[in-house]
Amino acid sequence: MADLISNLAGITSPNPFWLASAPPTNSGYQVQRAFEAGWGGAVWKTLGEPIMNSTSRFAALHFNGKRVAGFNNIELISDRPLDVNLREIADTKKRFPNHAIVASLMVEPKQEKWHEIVKRVEAVGVDGLELNFGCPHGMAERGMGSASGQVPALVEQQTAWVKEVATTPVIVKLTPNITDITATAEAAAQGGADAISLINTINSLAGVDIDTWQTIPNVDGLGTHGGYCGPAVKPIALHMLGDCARHPNVDIPISGIGGIATWQDAVQFLLMGASNVQVCTAAMHHGFRIVEDLLDGLSAYLEEKGLASVQDLVGQSVHRYSEWGNLNLNHQVVARINQDVCINCNKCHISCEDTAHQCIGRYTDENGAPYLKVDEDECVGCNLCSIVCPVEGAIAMVPKPNGLPPMSWNERQAAIAND
Amino acid sequence: MERSESIPLNFQEVEPPLSTQEATDEATRCLYCYDAPCITACPTGIDIPSFIQKITTNNLTGSARTIMEANPIGASCARVCPTEELCEGACVLNQTSKPIMIGKLQRYATDWAIQNEKPLFTAGKRNGQKVAVVGGGPAGLSAARELALLGYAVTVYEAETEAGGLDTYGIVSFRLPKRISLWEVEQVKSLGVSIQTNTRIGVDLSLAELQQSFDAVVLAVGMANVPPLGIPGEELHGVYDAIDLVKATKSTTLPQQFQGKRGVVIGAGNTAIDGATCAVRLGAENVKVLYRRTEAEMTAYQFEYEFAKQDSVEFRWLVSPIAVLGDEKGRVTALKCAEMALAEADESGRRTPIPTGATFVIKTDFIIKAIGQARHRWLDDVGIATHNGVISIDHHYETSVKGVFACGDAIFGQGQGEAMVVAAAEQGKQAAYAIDKKRRSQRAETSA
Question: Which of B20, B34, B39, B50 to mutate to test the interface with A (most CBs of A within 10 A)?
Fold first, then answer.
């Protein structure tokens, strides 16, 4: 069986699946249940000056009959006393010495505040620290969380303060609520971070109740923006992960976060440069037991790929993630419909006809049976038809050789400049 | 089935409705095909993907309107259509998983409209023209509804106490409760259509009178009762007409005389199944369906056949009745039957049953005739051309008498497709459009 042991900047865990700092890691009871279920590590719910939380706190985006395509929260950091959390961390670490316990921290941007909390949490035996520069609500209004995380200089400064006293690896958790996440990633690296984790939640308003006209969620008639996560954010997280992973000045390991719900999601994050992954929404949706399939599916996948260790996956697709200017503009694919599989729902036809390039025609064969056919000369290979097709294998996007040599926009511009 | 000691319980609708969750889940499964084959397969052309899509967004008024717009008796059809042969049979998901439960979703949306008393349509601006519709069944109601939407002042003449025709009186309650059909009648009435019940044309009013008072007349008279078997003894006490029997089960008090009795049903169409299952549910101890051909030739829908078997109805093939036997009080005691065999297929492709010569006697307490429906003979008397009792029409639903149109079962048999409720509804619509087209062109000529 493939080795699932993962290593993030020296923090090892039996497997790459950590629970992210969030409601699931609020207490020793929960984290111990998670470890018993099979989770490899946990980032404890953010410690700091205990705060008050509101009710209600969560909301979700349901889509087409499926619950929780996206998830939104306005919960703040831990509302439990620091010494209670520290005692439970110590107990948990004693019971699970091989599992990773990382303390998420958030304090005011003051050197002595950081020094104090780092010393206190390291004293109870945590394996690492994660600096929460990401939380987009509540704490940000007090100058913490994403208020710090959106300013590269503050990220760098505070990371450096932590590094002055930390003896365990320091992970900086980044907010996605910034135009270019590599700016803060670079700042974290400059500040001496041992790793970064991303993404934290995205600013969001979950909805408006069309019966009452209240926001969703609403707290006694008022709502506020919260942090968005869950399956719907995965593509955003992957893009930010890839941007950091390929950045020459961000040469530190990355813990991937954002919408991971299945082992396939995890594999994608690992391939795009994450050394491990953190999960929250999927566990909140289904409970800790989901880790069983995460582990099982990942093991089977590694075996099928003939890989000895999960670490062999890390970063394998990063070099394939590039700039648009490097894409081969002479590469051509076209849609092809497999008549044996097609069920004639005509969804490809109408989507192409109304919103793409009008190249899927409806015909009738000699027996009077309807069929759909792509005009390959007109097809621009946009993929829309294969995306809307509800039947696996009915539409393939196939390469169409055109005899042209590979040429990207950048190569074209360079060639013109050299003329 | 679990037969209840309480007979009324046996006549409650057997098919449970979808819950909101079930309906939403099922509606979400619909692919929302473009130019979907289910629409083409529906004789009334309901925009099925649209009404299902509206269920997913909880736009149930819109969903019911989409259904009822195309089919004025869409709530009844949700229950009685042979959906596996129509919409559900055409569903593209037959090829990958299982078809969408279109009938049940249609029932969900229309039930919602019924329960919430949502007005779905408003009558068109009156155009000063008047149309009489003879017969308030599926075809007549459908024609009346379309004509009212087009602005005609419509009067429906219905022979029975209540309108709805087959849906009200001819389909067993455990498939189609009367209240559903009566809701459809109310929908038509709400558009200002006048429904004169207990009024039989040819008795209470003549066709000529209607022709005089109205700009057009629609004959949607359906068919008459079951014809005679033509065998000795059929006048005995205990011989019933299946259509009358079903009608009796749709009145307030259910017939009591079948409890603990043995009976036979002659015929193997859907009406025969209805007669047999009604008899069982009325407490008959044993009911046998006798058919002179075999299972392969029976005209009942497969789901009706399965349903009857579940109701413990027995089926005897290749049996033809030759005489009803009775006691001294004139009550049925037995049926003498001939054993049949099938000849080779004739030119029409159908295999004719021929007696083998063997006969036998089945002891029975009652006999239900279900060998089809007779035609209305009075049509010939008023000069409406018919062929084998079927009203002859042109391509525009107009009969041999100008200004008199026909639709529904009265025209079935002229290559007008299967005699389904849903087909009658569509013909009603088409007859209405034909009248409107003709009236418009006449008005254009007059004003020119």
Answer: B34
CA distances (Å), origin A355, targets A323, A333, A382, A384: 26, 19, 11, 9
User: How do residues B229-245 score in pLDDT, each as one tens digit?
Assistant: 999 999 999 999 999 99
Whole-number Å distance between alpha carbons of A321 and A312: 18
Residue A246 and residue B400: Cα distance in Å, rounded?
84
Report the residue of chain B nearest A353, measured CA to CA.
B34
- At B239, which amino acid appears? V
DSSP category for residue B170: I
| Mean pLDDT rounded to a whole number for chain B | 94
**Residue A163: exposure state from Cβ atoms within 10 A (0-12, 13-18, ≥19):** middle
Supply φ then ψ for residue A364, to 5 degrees.
Answer: -125, 130
3-class SS of residue B361: strand
Nearest chain A Cα distance for residue B61, angstroms: 17
Q: Is the pLDDT of residue B415 over 70?
A: no
Best interface-test mutation with B: which of A345, A346, A387, A389 has the largest number of B CBs within 10 A? Answer: A345
Q: Which of B399, B386, B360 is nearest to B210 (CA)?
A: B399
* pLDDT greater than 70 at residue B1: no
- Asked if residue B379 has pLDDT above 90, the reply is no
Report which residue type is found at A349: H
User: Is the previous residue joined to B255 through a cis bond, with omega within 30 degrees of 0?
Assistant: no
Task: Using 70 as the pLDDT threshold, list the residues of chain A that sit under it.
Answer: none
List all residues of chain A from 336 to 365 with a beta carbon under 8 Å from chain B: 343-347, 349-350, 362
Find the angle CA(A285)-CA(A290)-CA(A296) to the nearest 5 degrees.
155
Alpha-carbon distance B347 to nearest alpha carbon in chain A (angstroms): 26
Among the partner-chain residues B25, B35, B96, the one whose CB lies closest to the CB of A343 is B96
pLDDT computed for residue B213 by the predictor:
97
Q: What separation, in Å, do the N-terminal and C-terminal C-alpha atoms of chain B show? A: 66
What the block records as the tokens of B240 is 């019933």
Check residue B35 and give left, alpha or beta (phi > 0: left; psi -120 to 50: alpha).
Answer: left
Give me the active site residues of A, please. Answer: 135
Average pLDDT over residues B26-48: 97
A349 CB-near residues (< 8 Å, 6+ apart): A360, A361, A362, A372, B34
Cβ distance of A346 and B93 shorter than 8 Å: no
CA A61 – CA A77 distance, rounded (Å): 23
Mean pLDDT, rounded, for B6-30 = 94
Contact A85, A29 (CB under 8 A): no
Q: Is the pLDDT of residue B416 over 60?
A: no
Decide: B390 and B413 in contact? Cβ < 8 Å: yes
Confidence of residue B348 (pLDDT cuts 50, 70, 90): confident
A174 and A205 in contact (C-beta within 8 Å)? no
Here the tokens at position A34 are: 């998670």
Instruction: State how far residue A291 is from chain B, nearest Cα, in angstroms.
Output: 27
- Phi, psi (degrees; rounded to nearest 5) at A245: -60, -35
Looking at residue B3, its pLDDT comes to 66
pLDDT of residue A197: 98
B219: part of which helix (H) or strand (E)? strand B216-219
The pTM (predicted TM-score) of the whole model is 0.92
Mean pLDDT in residue range B428-443? 95
CB atoms within 10 A of CB B115: 10
Number of DSSP helices (H) and strands (E) in chain B, helices first: 16, 15
pLDDT band at B2 (very low <50, low <70, confident <90, very high): low
Phi, psi of B400 (to 5 degrees): -65, -20
- Rounded to whole angstroms, how far apart are CA atoms A170 and A377? 55
Residue B247 exposed, middle or buried by CB count within 10 Å (0-12, 13-18, 19+): middle
Backbone angles phi, psi at A350, to 5 degrees: -70, -35
Q: Which residue of B has its CA nearest to A67?
A: B25
